[in-house]
Amino acid sequence: MSEIFTIMEYAFFRNAMAAAVLTSILAAMVGTYIVSRKIVFISGGITHASFGGIGMAYFFGLNPLLGAAVFAVLSATGIEWVSQKGKVREDSAIAILWSLGMALGIIFVFMTPGYTPNLMSFLFGSILSVGRAELYMLLAFCLLAGVFFWLYLRPVVHTAFDPEFSKIMGLPVGFFRYTMSVIIALAIVISIRSVGIILVLSLFTIPQITAMLFTRNFAKIIPLAALFGVVGSLAGLFSSYFFDIPSGAAIIFFLTLQFLLVKGLVMLLEYVHRNHS
After folding, report:
1. Contact (CB, 8 A) for 16 and 127
2. 126 phi and psi, to 5 degrees?
């Protein structure tokens, strides 16, 4: 126990804890939309397409997260446009963007003059190296997303699940769906620092699926998913430090373990209830 308090004296670990909490809250809001609308595959395409932006940013000497954000937003809005216009099959468009992003990322990293950049932190996350500036950016976007959901939760839900009726009711369907695409893209990019490109989608789906074991109400899933996300992320963070294992992988492992334990408990309670009724 004393070792836990000792490690919390270090600024880098306090920053990592804050990043874990903020990322879990952001993922709870955005991930609930992703899981409820069943667009996990789309989000995976956005995530991997952002790698192209990271590679190009390295090549031109820019901030890698800025490049990832530009690529992610363009991919997200492009997929939303394709899904609305229907000129290309949605899954085909996602596959193209997914492959193109990864290919461009590898090509531009290879072409970057000098040493080859270390991409491990982008692929698998490096939450223990999150700085104060990144924390402020994460906090600002988390607050921005929270305000947007608080003000527009009903129209977001209506336009996501019944766009035709929403049009009849006069709601700006295109505005809300494109706005959510941009929010998803930026939320994914900001969270890459914590768990990495390969694992980030798990953070946006596993806590939500765990929360959905208890409720299907969109507004109630968000706080439950945030709770499960925070608990799993902090457990993974502490484990990564004490056992010297990658932080992103440890976080996803504990989120998955948490889901399996909660699922098992729910099934056990249902079994006991059936046999006593």
Report:
1. yes
2. -155, 70
CATH superfamily placement of domain 2-276: ABC transporter involved in vitamin B12 uptake, BtuC (1.10.3470.10)
| pTM strictly above 0.85 | yes
Q: How far apart are the first and last CA of the chain?
A: 44
Q: Single out the residue of 9, 18, 56 nearest to residue 133, CA to CA.
A: 18
From the number of C-beta atoms within 10 Å of its C-beta (0-12, 13-18, 19+), residue 256 rates as middle
pLDDT in tens, 22-31: 999 999 999 9
Domain extents in the chain: 2-276
Residue pLDDT, tens place only, 179-234: 998 999 999 888 887 778 778 888 899 999 999 999 989 889 999 999 999 999 99
The per-residue b/e assignment along 119-150, b for 16 or more CB within 10 angstroms, e otherwise, is bebbbbbbbbebeeebbeebeebbeebeebbe
Positions of the chain with pLDDT under 50: none
